[in-house]
Amino acid sequence: MFRAGALRVDVRARRVWVGDTEIEMPAREFELLRVLVADPDRVFTRSELLQSVWGLGDWARTRTLDTHVISSREEPVVYVD
Questions:
Q1: Do 31 and 25 meet the contact criterion of CB atoms below 8 Å apart?
Q2: Does 10 have pLDDT greater than 90?
């Protein structure tokens, strides 16, 4: 279980909460979150994320990562103090 402030991520159960509210995420967005929370102090390159989440190499010229980041930012966010 990963915790940071109000965010909780249960990687084994593939569940995410902000405060007491469970957040449903598409599989790829969850996988992206899983990679990021596994090493929260690390700065990932675009290539590393594409390889880790989608299995794409440096040759990949795709906007997939951008699309998923934009989608996650558009989701309603619940802030809990």
A1: no
A2: yes
